[in-house]
Amino acid sequence: MTGTVEKAVAEITRGRRSPVYLLHGDEFLAKEGAKAILEALVPPGQQALSVEVVPEDQDLASLSVRLRTLSLFGGTKVVMVHDSKAFVSKESLDSLVRRSLEAWQAENLERAARLLLQALAAAGEGEGFLDRAGRGEVSGPELERILGAGADGDREQWLREVAGRAIADGMAVPESTGAGLARIYEEAIQQGIPADTALVLTAEVVDERRVLFKRIAAVGFVIDCGIRSKRPWDTQMEPEAARAKIREMVAAAGKRIAGDALAAIVERTGFSMRALESEMEKVLLYLGTRPEITAADVTEVLTTSREANVFDLTNAVSARDAGRALRAFRSLMAQREPVPPILGVLAGELRGLIIARSALESHLGGSLDPNLPFPAFQSRVLPLLGKGAGADDGSAAKLLAMKPYRAFNLFKAATRFSMADLVRRLEAIHETDLALKTSGHPEALLMEELVITLCAADLFP
Fold first, then answer.
1. CATH for 2-86+178-225 (1.10.3720.10, 3.40.50.12780, 3.40.50.300, 3.40.630.10)
2. What stretch of H or E contains 376?
3. CA gap 335, 410 in Å, rounded
4. Are the beta carbons of 195 and 209 closer than 8 angstroms?
């Protein structure tokens, strides 16, 4: 069975308990959901004697025994395992690497290291690779072959720093890969979980093709706590998931929030639920006794976050606002943000604008009313992209696969540039990348020159 945490709790309340619960996706939401299910299964006052939390990497061999050991004073017994790696496979590598990179960029090195170690285990690598990675001795081709991670300065720095953190903290590559751990769970389920016992699992990354995943879906309850689409280019959570969490926290604080403030928070913090909650706490603390959060409050509080400055930088470049772009870049430098990720974000924004410009020319006659509201864009413009007008190079399909609001913003920004001008700006990014690696000039100076170039008047007449 599949469903939501709310549905699982409702089923438990009706007396229909599943033997296994699997919550996968966003780490924060999965653990919060597991807590809600636990409280529905076992009253808080009885949990000390009726709940066992098993560390998967230390004591999973005892799982079957624990599942068959009755609660000391009767009632429901719960065995809980967090952050399971049993659902990881080589096909999970892309997701593990991406999540580790994001954690590193958010300066959460402990989580980045944990995810990297899972990736190495899934790839069949061990301590030797980890040691070489920490010394910076892994070549680009080897990195791509083993982890499927494209070799660039950003990813090589990520691997070196995160591997070094794992070694310094005494962390090790898990000895059991997903398949070995999965067998232990499969055997426990096959033997049968007692009627008065439940197994609750959380996992950040799962391969839904694994036998264990399918078996739990057949006999238990699976909850997808993912806050992103399955598309690899979506780095932010689904906007509705972020909005729901913001409204929940605002209501709990007895406050109100303006619509533009809500949108600003989603855009600046929508990378993970844990980061969103942390930033919301800052906003609410700043608000004090005032009853409503405004867009000005959000700007004041969140302009110092990495996500906010990245967002402001790309928005300023798309708007050709050199002053705002330079301020955002300098804020990132003050936070000691590495230059390669910033360059990568700018390149990604330019590629998105090129895709939008191509679709604009092939499907919309090369122009779009910049004042067109989003609802009108969604109802009148987006359908035109699927009609195959003109010679489409695949740009329309890529835009249709994006979140509509992202496509809307790219289209609006693309109206400010010609195709030749966008291509020249992308070339300027590549030239800056080369200069950063070979010229010896100060990074900040090269990047500020690039930012001004990206925001300048048309480079072509």
1. 3.40.50.300
2. helix 374-376
3. 27
4. no
Closest CA to 38 of 57, 71, 12, 14: 12
Map out the domains of the chain as residue ranges.
2-86+178-225, 90-168, 239-302, 308-455
- Paired tokens of 285: 């603390």
Q: Measured between alpha carbons, how far is 150 from 154 in angstroms, rounded to an integer?
A: 10
Q: What is the pLDDT of residue 309?
A: 63
Q: CATH assignment of 239-302, given 3.30.2350.10, 3.40.50.150, 1.10.8.60, 3.40.50.800?
A: 1.10.8.60
- The whole-chain average pLDDT of the chain stands at 78
Q: Which two tokens stand for residue 204?
A: 């950040």
Report yes or no: 414 and 395 within 8 Å, Cβ to Cβ: no
CA geometry: angle 352, 357, 362, nearest 5 deg: 130
Compute the Cα dihedral for 289, 294, 296, 302 and give only its sign.
positive
Q: What one-letter code names the amino acid at 421?
A: D
175-221: per-residue pLDDT in tens?
A: 555 566 777 888 888 888 888 888 888 887 777 777 788 888 888 89
Structure tokens at 417: 């540039």
